[in-house]
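User: Fold both of these, please.

Assistant: Here is the first one.
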Amino acid sequence: MKKLALMAVAMAFVLVSTGGWSQAACKKVTVSAPSKSELTLRMDMRKLWEDHIAWTKAYIVSAVNDLPGTDKVAARLLKNQQDIGDAIKPFYGEEAGDKLTSLLKDHILIAADLVGAAKAGDNAKAAEAEKKWYDNGDQIAEFLGKANPNWTKESLKEMLDTHLSLTKAIAVAAITKDLDAEIKAADSNHEHMLMMADALTDGIVKQFPKKFGESCAKMSSKKCCS
């Protein structure tokens, strides 16, 4: 009898405890979700910067190997810089978008000079072009840092410098015919550029929350107990 009484007390304790945990678990849960407009911007920004690295690599390979149609690849790459500039115009205006396009086109044209000099073995010219390339990166970082307080010049410069370093690694690998190194650098550049694209999106969303509607739309779980 004493054992049965103890078992009954234990079962009652378990039922009460389980009920308590069930009630706690069944409380309404809210999860923040991005708005449709934010998701659209994020995907568009990723696509633009993926195009940037894809067409940059395509140009490097074409130029290094003197492939036919290199000029067409270059034209498509320059169009990407226009596309990126156009993408910020809804937020920062026509003048700012055109300025970014100009800076990014310089970024590409200097890179072309750098690839050409490196391919020709002109170390002095290559060093000069590389300095201009990094100076241009600093100008882009400064321009964007002034446009949005959520982007600091220092963080932008770090991201851009990493992109330049990885792009140079791709070019060196292409020139030296080191396919393994080329693939490794391209994969790293891709991963890095997605991170940079997301950082740019995050900054825009924070600066212009009204343009993105309810950026913390609520999704609630179903109530599972009375």
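And the second sequence with its predicted structure:
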Amino acid sequence: MELLRDYVREQSDHAFRTLVERHINVVYALALRQTENAQLAQDVTQAVFIVLAEKAASIPNGAILAGWLFRATRFAAANTLRAEARREHWEQKAAQMEPPSPAESELEQIEQTAPLLTAALEQLPELDRSAILLRFFESKSMGEVGRLLGTTESAAKMRLSRAVEKLRRIFRQRGVVVPASAVLALLSVQAAQAAPAGLAAAIATSALLNQSSTATFIIAKGTLKIMAQAQAKKLALAALVLLFGGAAAVVVQQTIQRSQNAAAPKGFVLPEIKAAEVPATNKVLVFRNVPSWNRNPDFEDVLGDLGFDFEVKPSALMGTADLSPYRFVVIPGAQWRTDFYTTYAANAARFDRYITNGGVLVLELNGAENDGIPLPRGVNIVRNGSRENTIVWADHPILAPMGGRSIRANFASHGYLTDVPRDALVLATETTDGESDTNRPTFIEYSVGKGRVIAAAQCFHDRDNSGRGALMPTLLTYAAERKWYTPKK
């Protein structure tokens, strides 16, 4: 990004040529994989760097260039393939294809998944895709991946692990069932294929001088148009969300969906988008230093499955991260092996301001009971292991999966909450002699200014067969939808 800024500020040919030399192999390899044609791949690669030169000034400082180039290459290659398909339609009949034989080895599994890889990467959240591109395509070390993603090496490893599992699920949705080892094997051979000798110098020159062949010019022009259309749709949706709220987002998204359906090839229909799958704004922040009990799935997995745009930051950034863009912030449990909770306590006032201004804070407090961290409005947690918790409101959207059943486990909760505001809604309590102990609430929600706090002394997993793992997706959906529960009289 420093080189890109140098090019924008000073029109530095050297900076741009260096950028091309560093990234050309990745772009060429992506283009070659998608087009499966060396000449088309060169045209696409040249077009991508022409687009980069054109749009350099508008790329945000915080962007990861590998991710931006991936999307630009994806657009350019798709545009090229559509043009090629139209041309070939008039030149020759489609070749008869033999039905694929079933996979019998890892090599065959790799051959099955390779054609799906680019499209599958497109479906990943931006940071997951960037992690894979940096690690496997650009051969960065895990330390470098963490640094470029703005996080720690251990957090980068966690993100990569989850991203590989998401890719496996995407392949499965497309009818190709492979183990995680096959996905890793596929990615391990994705190191960027070297572009032809001399291509970097030729591309840098043509991009800087805005000179290219007719074929490349058409690809670049089409790519700029596609990227502009994609950005326009994104901005239109965001603007209407600000003006009219969540309902407008659904209307606009469905309108976009219908227009896409209309333009699709005959016989191809994109799936309908349900309102529940299109949150008004779905940007979420998770603060995390270490995994939570090595559980699977964890918050990041469920956020990805629900389609949220989420980021993970270490506790070291609690004092500087801008919280205002996020619909809700998650504080996960089991972070006691680091300075996580003391850092949270030191920055409690920042979180209070975020909630007061309309944010939502989701706190999974198991693990914080030893530190006694302060919650907004003076709520505290007291350490106490309980084997059973009583559900107070069985029809609450978060608790509905439990069907009113108690939560039973060796540690149904690690503590209970004190100094709870009188207007707070108590969702669960410790159980004493088979009855709800109202003096020991373990799961509450309450308002703070324009925002809300959802605090649980339970952890959300099913490793103990307690059934409470089902509450993680309902908890996150509830925090995103902001349709706060009102008990029936």
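The first helix runs from residue 2 to 10.
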